[in-house]
Design brief:
Largest sheet: 8 strands, mixed
Oligomer: single chain
Shape: globular
Strand content: 15-25%
Distance between the termini: 8 Å
Number of helices: 10
Number of strands: 8
Low-confidence stretches: none
Length: about 290
């Protein structure tokens, strides 16, 4: 860690809803000068093995941590839970991933129905083959096809106008229970972290009262860290999360939520103003390294 200047513990590849292959992701990491990173694809760790193989043959590779991101439901609504350095051979992790994928398929079918009901859009056999070939299909894959048809100028616009309209954003019941995700990560020897705890990309940010209500449930379930440093958070939101992490004895983590071309977020961006976060503040590194 002493030689690294930049860190990004929340990144996605084409194994879920990012645009970069593992090879392209690694090139982006090196080009950005990131010395410590994690791959945290949604409900899958298929890309982790590919990255580990690439790093094994590389001189002076960046430090890599195995990761995953689970889509979860709590009593207060939806959350995302990141897991780091778990045993990929763990039975409980395999069960949680399988359930996450099953529910992701349900959301996929609902989105197809939404597009047909509200927009009269049905995909061709060739387009469906592309979608079915994805290991963890998500909104960006659907949006990319809509852009190709000329229905939207970009992926974010396609999601906003065709997938999140008319209540299409409401898929919170098709998520695994948060206690299941946290327990699986812990039982597999990993470290569970609440991803973008004030709200993710395009979401209304939680009030302090809403945040604390959700945190109580996650703390009871065994959460170990908060993603205090995030590409869409202000310095004030960052300071609030730092205070909450310290108050509750949780690790501070940080990640950009990089998705390649599918989101307008560069690798290593850990705050809205893109100022560098000193690695000493990202206290989760003390437990991972």
């Amino acid at each position: 860690m002493e030689n690294a200047k930049f860190c990004d513990l929340h990144m996605h590849s084409s194994c879920s809803d990012g645009s970069d292959s593992p090879e392209e992701l690694l090139r982006a990491v090196r080009k950005a000068g990131i010395g410590i990173f994690a791959l945290t694809d949604h409900d899958t760790f298929d890309g982790v093995g590919a990255v580990e193989k690439l790093l094994a043959g590389m001189a002076d590779p960046p430090r890599f941590f195995r990761g995953i991101e689970f889509s979860c439901i709590t009593g207060a609504g939806k959350v995302h839970i990141l897991g780091y350095q778990f045993d990929p051979e763990s039975r409980v992790m395999a069960e949680a991933v399988a359930e996450g994928r099953r529910l992701r398929e349900i959301k996929f079918e609902r989105r197809l129905a939404h597009l047909e009901k509200w927009h009269g859009i049905r995909f061709t056999a060739e387009e469906m083959a592309y979608l079915k070939a994805q290991k963890s299909v998500g909104k960006p894959h659907l949006a990319r096809l809509l852009v190709r048809r000329g229905l939207a100028p970009d992926i974010s616009g396609a999601i906003r106008d065709y997938l999140d309209d008319h209540g299409g954003k409401d898929g919170t019941d098709a998520r695994i229970p948060v206690a299941m995700a946290i327990r699986a990560i812990l039982d597999a020897g990993g470290l569970p972290v609440w991803a973008h705890p004030l709200g993710g990309e395009g979401e209304k940010h939680l009030t302090s009262a809403e945040f604390e209500g959700c945190l109580r449930e996650l703390t009871a379930a065994g959460i170990r860290g908060l993603e205090c440093y995030y590409s869409r958070y202000t310095a004030e939101e960052e300071a609030f999360l730092e205070e909450m992490a310290d108050r509750h004895g949780l690790c501070r983590s940080g990640g950009s939520d990089y998705h390649g071309k599918n989101k307008d977020i560069p690798p290593g961006m850990l705050r809205e103003d893109n100022l560098t976060i000193p690695l000493q503040k990202i206290t989760i590194l003390r437990h991972l390294i």
